[in-house]
What does this fold into?
Amino acid sequence: MLLKAIGRQLIAILLTALIGGLLGATLVRFAPGFGVQESDLNAQLSAETRQALHQQDASERNVPSYYAHYLTQLARGDLGYSRSLNRPVLELLRDRVPETLYSLAIGVGGGWLLGLALALPATWKRSPAYSTAASLITGVFLCIPSAVLALLFLVVGSPGRIAIALVVFPKVFRFSRNLLIKTYAMPHVLTAKARGLSSLRILGWHVFPNIAAPMLALAGVTVSLALGAAIPVEVVCDYPGLGQLAWRAALARDVPVLVNLTLIIALVTVAANSFSDLLTPTATRDVL
Amino acid sequence: MTGARWAAIVLLAAVFLIALAANLFAPAPYAKQFRQDVNHSPTQAYPLGTDELGRDRLSRLLYGMRISLLLAPAAALLSTVLAAIVGGAGAYIGGVWERAIKVVIDLFLSLPWLFLLLTVRALLPLDIPAVTSVLVTFALLGALGWAASARIVAATVRDLRNAEFVLQARASGCPPLRLLLRHMLPNVKPILIAQFWISVPLFILTEANLGMLGLGVTEPLPSWGNLLRELENYGALSHRPWLWAPLISLLVVVSLFQFILSGEEYVS
It folds into this structure.
């Protein structure tokens, strides 16, 4: 059963790579500027030489053969060359991944800490005033674009990465609060309370095992959410991460960078979601 | 529905009507430049002052709100229809189709869609006219933002497919189209309406993010996104507080949308 599920998830990852690769190759093929060569501007070359050079690349103009070429290069770890930054895409990614990972760690970690720190008292106290105040706070952060949040942090002189945590935490708070309220109302938890067990023991032994699977599914969603928020935050705060790279590539119409970046991020998030899917019931995923 | 939610609906309707009638309330056309009054402080003639090109800020805010409040619901409608077609059809047909559509939905959901939007937006020509940029931005939001709704629609249709009343209708010879339109659609309608309302503020916020990155609606057309770019001049915010007006109006409108949605609908 588990092997079958693992096989299904592996097929999903492979399909992502193949479909994403095909879409990517098609986008690159039809992007403005495709096929334009530096040699076209070289006055030293004769028309015949230029034509011969173009004929060499003629195979790339056909989408299926270009796709095959693209996949072969991808399998070799060659992600192409950035026209706007004049560097191989792989090198650019290698330089910028640590910055984004750092932002994600702060964003996802901070978002979860903040979300759970607000959700647990909301469940324990069941005070309408606290619940309303917590909902209002989370509501406010749901109404502000992440770029503006990052800007506000710059205004007050704080690290802009916290903005990613503030994008993640309302989702964590709302989902975990509802889940905790449901779990705390379960008969076995009520029995544990009646027997006088401590709050921490009830949480660790009776509540956590019940909420672990849906929380894991939420973890996958929050990574994706944080990655999305990382683009405006890195742009506004001038952090040299993948988000800023994507933005620069978008402004410069550097499609190879964008396509490979999107494909890699899709593969990472599909792999993360596949892992959480293996441990999560379908019903939970449908409400996330 | 509580009184507070009704009040939110009335307020939102009022904001919507004011934005819709922007040409009546705006003191000047949104692109008109008063070159003698560049960066002017608020006065009776310019209630929110003028920007660095001498354009009246209040007029630009009202027209920007009109664009966002008209096109975000249109994009939400497009994404809801796509979600209903893709998610609903896949779950209704079942079998291989359902699995295939589930893979497509998972693929879309696994992509942080701001990356996808940047990629697709980057493929558009540089000299795109302002009106086209508005339509393209919101059409992209609608065309790429359907996956989360489709997953919820698919789950609902899957449950309905095996519901007793559907089985009974099928057993009594009800044709598939009638089954879909008369028996299943009324049950999916509340989910679709909720998804529509959830998508509207989401699209407004996404356009604002895109606009701040310079990849949303292009000048001279105003939108919440490009109006918020003035906040980047944060050194001036303390002595020119009227620059906060676009953010405050965005906060109010999105909060009203959020308030209208009940807690459970919003979480879903």
About this structure: Chain B has a mean pLDDT of 84. Chain B touches chain A through 47 residues (CB under 8 Å). The CA atoms of residues 11 and 93 of chain B lie 42 Å apart.
